[in-house]
Write a structure and sequence with these properties.
With 70 residues, the chain is mainly alpha-helical. The protein has a domain at 3-39. The protein contains two helices and no strands. The protein has helices at 3-19, 27-39. It is extended and about 40 Å long. 1% of the residues are buried.
């Protein structure tokens, strides 16, 4: 693997961690905390990643009781 490919891969992993809402966390820490420690999934195991795109802005926010009143 070339240095350019490696740099692009690292940048992509950093971008995914930021996109997930953890901009200060390294990709390795993210994987350890949310997959290895929390779920027992080991690095190298396949995962299904679900990504949603909201066409008309942000999703509706629900109150803790499930109502839409905020």
């Amino acid at each position: 693997m070339s240095t350019a490919t490696t740099s692009a891969s690292v940048a992509g992993r950093n971008r995914q961690v930021r996109f997930s809402g953890f901009p200060g966390m390294s990709p390795s820490e993210f994987i350890r905390r949310f997959f290895v420690d929390a779920q027992g999934i080991q690095p190298g195991e396949l995962l299904t990643r679900i990504e949603r795109t909201y066409v008309n802005g942000a999703p509706e926010q629900l109150a803790l009781n499930g109502s839409t009143d905020t």
